[in-house]
Structure formats: structure tokens, C-alpha cells
Automatic annotation (TrEMBL), chain A:
Keyword Signal applies: yes
Matches recorded under Pfam families: PCuAC
InterPro entries: LpqE-like, Lxx211020-like, PCuAC_sf
Keyword Signal: yes
Domain of life of the native organism: Bacteria
Gene3D superfamilies named in the record: PCu(A)C copper chaperone
Protein name: Copper chaperone PCu(A)C
Keywords: Signal
Signal peptide: 1-22
From TrEMBL, chain B:
Keyword Transmembrane annotated: no
Gene3D superfamilies: Glutaredoxin
PANTHER family attached to this UniProt entry: ELECTRON TRANSPORT PROTIN SCO1/SENC FAMILY MEMBER, LINALOOL DEHYDRATASE_ISOMERASE DOMAIN-CONTAINING PROTEIN
Gene source species: Pseudovibrio ascidiaceicola
Protein name per the record: Protein SCO1/2
InterPro entries: SCO1/SenC (IPR003782), Thioredoxin-like_sf (IPR036249), Thioredoxin_domain (IPR013766)
Similarity annotation: Belongs to the SCO1/2 family.
Keyword Heme belongs to the record: no
Length: 157, 201
């Protein structure tokens, strides 16, 4: 019993380890990399996560949604500041990534939106979020949590 | 007798009118000379809100110091954390001079941002920024007086998000609006603006 638990734990560690090391994921024709999120203040109910998705295929790819257990809802949103006003909308139909193009989910633009966070994201945590694609299907992506207010997923001290 | 009285009252009325006219001209002249100062668009003014401890916080609490004021809400995933983090960067950069400024975060979502919610949210970025919220009417008044754009946008299940002005307002010590620092404005331009604001007090 104990041994089994240990084995499971070891497998989990190994899995997390490999996921953390892998800085890019190949998923069909898609290259998914530079995933990151940031720590949230206590009681914050919203959070965003960011990632870069390159479509190496010859057909358009379609990011249709995201799934996670961290919030009441996990969605693909678009944010824009126009004339000094911030507007954020859920993209009901997701985002199309044209063949040969890269879609950047980044601050001030597209993001994975966590609405109604169950608990705050802490720096150093790794979020597991499943991104759903129309043709390529679902893929789990690891989003390391950077410090609060971080502007990118790059570690700099 | 009635005639005499009427004439007397009439005379006094004429004197009063003359005095009023002369003062009006004087005031107008004074105002006219003052026009270059007063011609700025009316943004801002006195306000009454509630701080993170649930205490009343008004413009008087700004102590006549220049103020950097941001309008946001705690459900905000991007602009608000980014701006609070930028503000903290400016505070670190200014060092002790930061004490000569007020840094204020005003919620445009008072229904969800109760004093303890906004207090925890803002405190997570540093201790310098004052979290403010208030009753729906108090916040509505500030939003109107400060010409802030804030609109509730419904989402599913009765949830909502807020469209809102993303710029940081710069107010001088007299609470006059002097400009903004835009979202994601680089420190190279934001800091000189803040130093100028400090110098103007």
C-alpha cells in the first residue's frame, strides 16, 4: 500500500518535473510554448494566463476553449485598451490561428481567463490547464506562476 | 408720503443696482484675467469614499499633496495588477520622495469590492497605495466627476466584468487634473511626468 503511494508520488514528481522542463510542447501541427501566469492578490477573483501557440500546419487551427479546475469558469478572452478604456470580452468562438502564424496570448491582448478563482495563484506554483483545439484536440499545458504583476514569463531577478 | 417713500426706495434700489453692476464688472475682469488657469476641463473635485479599513476617506485626506489615481476592480486579470505593479515600481524608483505623493486605487466595482476585499488586493502589491471603494452612489459620483469610463458588462451566470478607464490620473495638490499616465506606459516617460507633478506642488 505504502509502496504504491510512493510509486504514485514518484510518478507524479517525475511527471511534474518533465512538464516543467519542457519549454515547448508539440501537439499535432502546433507548437505551444512560453506558458505562464502570475500570482494573484488574496481575494482576487480573476486571473489570466498566457501562452504562445504556433501553427506549423498548412490549415488554420482553432483554439476553441480552455478547461481547468481553478475557477468557476476558464475561458478564452480578449482584452484591449482603446481610447484609454480597457474592455474585456469572452471569445465565444475561440481564436483562429492561421496556417504558419503564431498566436500570442499575452498581457493587454488574448488570455486564458479564470473567472471566479477558487483560491489565489501563488508564485512558483504550476497550473495545469487543458487547451482545446478543434482538430488537434485537447492538450494539457503547464503554466508556471510568476510573481504578482509580472509582465512576462521570463525569469529575471 | 407714499410718493416720497417710493422715490426713496427707488433711489436705494438704483444704488444697489449700481453697486451690483460695478462688482460684477470687477469680478468679470478678475475672472477674465484668471482664464488661462481656469480654462482647463473640469475633471475631478471633492469626493467622499471609504478606505480599506471601512473608514470615510475624502479629498481632505490627500493632505494637499499631488495624487496618482487609478480606477479599477479586483476581478480585473490584467490592467489592474499590471498598473499596481507599475505603481510599485514608480514608488521604489522615487524612494523617499514617494511620500510626497498620494497613490490611490479607486474601485469602480463597489458591489464586489468591499473594503476588506480591495484592501487585501492592493496591499499585495505594496503598502503605499491607498485602496478606496464606497457605496454604489459614492463611487458613481466619483466616476462622473472624474470623467471615468466604467460600465458593467454581463457575463454568464449573472457574473459581470467592467469596462473601465485604464489610465492613471495625475492630480496636483489642488486636486486639479493635470494629465494621465497611460496603460503600460514605459517608466522612461512615466517617471519624468511624476517628477514634474511633484515639482508642481
Amino acid at each position: 500500500m505504502k509502496t504504491r503511494a510512493l510509486l504514485v508520488a514518484a510518478a507524479l514528481v517525475a511527471f511534474t518535473g518533465s512538464a516543467a522542463l519542457a519549454d515547448s510542447i508539440q501537439h499535432g501541427d502546433l507548437t505551444i510554448k512560453d506558458a505562464w501566469s502570475r500570482a494573484t492578490p488574496p481575494k482576487a477573483k480573476g486571473a489570466g494566463a498566457f501562452v504562445s501557440i504556433t501553427n506549423n500546419g498548412s490549415e488554420d487551427a482553432h483554439l476553441t476553449g480552455a478547461v481547468s479546475g481553478y475557477a468557476k469558469r476558464t475561458e478564452i478572452h480578449e482584452m484591449a485598451v482603446n481610447d484609454g478604456v480597457m474592455k474585456m470580452r469572452k471569445l465565444e468562438d475561440g481564436v483562429v490561428i492561421p496556417a504558419g502564424k503564431t498566436l500570442e496570448l499575452k498581457p493587454g491582448s488574448y488570455h486564458v481567463m479564470f473567472m471566479g478563482l477558487k483560491q489565489p495563484f501563488k508564485m512558483g506554483e504550476e497550473l495545469k490547464v487543458t487547451l482545446e483545439f478543434e482538430k488537434a484536440g485537447p492538450v494539457e499545458v503547464t503554466f508556471p506562476v510568476m510573481k504578482m504583476g509580472a509582465k512576462s514569463g521570463k525569469m529575471h531577478h | 408720503m407714499n410718493v416720497a417713500k417710493t422715490i426713496r426706495y427707488g433711489a436705494w434700489a438704483a444704488v444697489a443696482l449700481l453697486v451690483a453692476a460695478v462688482s460684477a464688472v470687477t469680478v468679470m475682469k478678475f475672472v477674465k484675467e484668471d482664464v488661462p488657469q481656469a480654462a482647463t476641463v473640469q475633471i475631478g473635485g471633492p469626493f467622499e469614499l471609504v478606505d480599506g479599513k471601512g473608514q470615510v476617506f475624502t479629498d481632505k485626506n490627500l493632505d494637499g499633496k499631488p495624487t496618482l489615481m487609478f480606477f479599477g476592480f479586483t476581478y480585473c486579470p490584467d490592467v489592474c495588477p499590471t498598473t499596481l505593479s507599475d505603481m510599485q515600481g514608480w514608488i521604489d524608483n522615487l524612494g523617499p520622495k514617494a511620500d510626497d505623493l498620494n497613490f490611490v486605487f479607486v474601485s469602480v466595482d463597489p458591489e464586489r469590492d468591499t473594503p476588506d476585499v480591495i484592501a487585501d488586493y492592493v496591499a499585495a502589491f505594496g503598502s503605499h497605495v491607498v485602496p478606496l471603494t464606497g457605496s454604489v452612489d459614492q463611487v458613481k459620483k466619483v466616476v462622473k466627476d472624474y470623467r471615468v469610463y466604467a460600465r458593467k458588462v454581463p457575463l454568464e451566470d449573472g457574473d459581470y466584468t467592467m469596462d473601465h478607464t485604464a489610465a492613471v490620473y495625475m492630480l496636483n495638490g489642488d486636486l486639479d487634473f493635470v494629465g494621465t499616465i497611460s496603460y503600460q506606459e514605459p517608466e522612461e516617460t512615466a517617471l519624468p511626468k511624476i517628477r514634474k507633478l511633484l515639482g508642481s506642488s
